Each structure stands twice: as structure tokens, then as C-alpha cells.
Amino acid sequence: MQPQFDSPFAVTDETPPIVEFGGVGLRYGRGPEVLHDIDLALPQGSFHFLTGSSGAGKSSLLGLMYLARRPTTGSIRMFGLEVDRLSRRRLPEVRRRIGVVFQEFRLLDHLTALDNVALPLRIAGIPEVDIRRNVTELLEWVGLGDHLRARPPTMSGGQQQRVAIARAVVANPSLLLADEPTGSVDDHSAARLMRLFEELNRMGTTIVIATHNRAIVEESGHPELRLEEGRLTLVPGSAQS
Fold first, then answer.
1. How many domains does the chain have?
2. pLDDT: is 7 or 139 the higher one?
């Protein structure tokens, strides 16, 4: 059974891009720039892959998108707000509109799958009865209805990844960022994860997936954001049937 999420936004001709970078550069400390003069505009409801060799700057670019760091140069707008100028007090309200699937999962080993996924809702103060219903339905949707009480150390890599995805989307984010979500699972699990991302995108979520998996990129038909030596190029996707 698929959870019935409301679309986080209605896309119109006047709707601004969900992510806008203008001349963005990033360096760590006194080191060289790892990202150079990035210009980017992601339409709401779009699906992009972020590609590039190791060290090209993919994780750094995602970090800017989920507001883990601020750019060294240039400006960033998210949801129409100039986030690099927002106070630290206002950043959490923007971050709540972003779901992140980390490469290393970042699940809490002492909590069950249900409790890991419920964390964002409990932090937001959602009533427990609603949390139990929504989280149970979501875990069933990702194929883990029989693993509600399982803890991460007892689960496979693919199962842990699906828990991480469920946690990232349980609060119905407008933007979902995933860093190498298929990097540690087999081809069958990778295909299943991609079907989940496609369905989330059909329900209105804007998605950016960083990946080294060329087969997934080429089969999907979605456009590609290609990073090479810190510079970004948009590669249009092929038409999908």
C-alpha cells in the first residue's frame, strides 16, 4: 500500500526554482576552491543525477544544498529564500523542507526501524498516534512491514538504506537529496530503491541523487548534473516513455 502524501507544492509557470545557485564557490579553510562558479536552477518537481569522479565535489555540493555549510562566494536561494544570508535561528525551518539520505545511513543502532523513522516527527511534536500510523504505513510501502521492530545491526545493507529513505521522506520534504544511495547494495536492491525514488518524484518531491552508477543514470532518462574539477555542467536526459 502506498502512503497518500499531499504534494508539497503546486507547480505553476510562476513557481520559482526550488534550488538556485548564483556564482557559488566553496573552499575549506585556506585550501583551494573545491567548487568553482556554480550556476544552477532546479525546477520544483524535477529529478536530477549528480555525477563526477571521486573528489569532484559531489558531497560538497550536496552539503551546500542541505545547508550543512555556506558558500565561500556567490549566493544560494532555496524555496525562494536567500539561505546564505539567513540567521542560524531561521535555518531549521528551511532544513525541515529537505530530506537527506546519507551514504553511511546514519541510523541509530539502539533504535528499531520504526523509531529511527519516527525521529523527525517526534522532534516536530507530532502526536504519537499519528506517528505510529504514518511510520508503519511508510515502512510497509518500502517493503519493511515485517521489520518494524528490527534494529539496524540485524538488517541487510539494502534494508538499512530503505529505513534511511523512509526517515528522509516521513516529514514529506519538498526536496530529497541522496548521496550514493545504491553504492552499498546489490543490483536488485538498487533497482528497488530507484523505483522508490521515481514514485516519490511522481508524488511531487524534487530529487537529486549523487551516484557513480552509470547504468542507473543512463536507464533513467533524467538529466545529469556533471561535476568535473569543481565545475558543473548540465547534461540533458533522454526522453522517457
1. 1
2. 139
